[in-house]
Design goal:
This protein has helices at residues 2-10, 23-31, 65-72, 76-84, 104-115, 129-137, 147-153, 156-159, 187-199, 201-209; strands at 38-40, 49-64, 95-98, 121-125, 143-146, 162-166, 172-180. The chain is of the alpha+beta class. Strands 1, 2, 5, 6 and 7 form a 5-stranded antiparallel beta sheet that branches.
């Protein structure tokens, strides 16, 4: 929302159509010329798509404090310390709300659960991360979620209702801009990318860590 708001200040006559689907679907739509720009993970290079860096996405595990208290009670402090140290095995006792396994974050979540021999009780699945995060806040289940999404969408008071756990190695991935090499690149698309690099917190933080920045 912040990105679109800022872009519209300089390009007020442009209508932006958002298509929120899996990374694979975005790449396919871009390659076929159905969209002007994709913001997605591009693990494999496609000669038809020009890829430009945006930021590195970090997946975290979000659990409502209410749920943790209900499940672990007097063990809570010890369990939280264990999870923060990188051992997710206590979460075998927690229900989960999860995305679709075919998407990149769903694949990472599946691998982590397998690594710690967790066979989750899944209360709900959805393509919409906002829906999953709302369910997580309400104590329905633990949720693997993009840290950048949480920081940008939840107000401070809502963040206080959640415990956010960093995840072991392998729980992050590059998010890039993708543009079709066959299509004429509109000035508005370039301006949209420039605005994104300026206003998205994760992109600004990453730029600040680059040598000479």
């Amino acid at each position: 929302p912040l990105l679109i708001e800022e872009f519209q200040k300089e390009w007020p006559l442009y209508e932006i159509q958002l298509i929120e689907v899996t990374n694979d679907s975005l790449r396919k739509a871009l390659a076929e010329g159905d969209i002007d720009l994709a913001i997605a993970a591009f693990p494999e290079r496609d000669p038809a798509i020009e890829v430009k860096p945006f930021y590195r996405e970090h997946l975290v595990l979000a659990v409502s404090r209410r749920q943790l208290q209900a499940v672990f009670q007097d063990e809570l402090d010890a369990v939280v310390a264990k999870i923060r140290a990188g051992d997710l095995s206590p979460l075998a006792r927690c229900p989960f709300v999860m995305g679709k396994p075919e998407d990149i974050s769903g694949g990472i979540a599946r691998e982590l659960l397998h690594r710690f021999d967790i066979h989750p009780l899944v209360k709900a699945r959805s393509d919409n991360i906002g829906t999953l995060l709302a369910l997580c806040q309400n104590g329905v289940g633990a949720c693997f979620c993009q840290e950048n999404f949480i920081r940008m969408t939840l107000p401070g008071e809502s963040l206080k209702e959640l415990e956010l756990f960093s995840l072991p190695d392998g729980a992050s991935y590059e998010i890039n801009f993708g543009i079709s090499r066959r299509a004429y690149q509109r000035k508005a698309v370039a301006a949209f990318m420039e605005t994104a690099l300026r206003v998205i917190p994760a992109a600004k933080e990453q730029a600040g860590r680059e040598p000479g920045a």
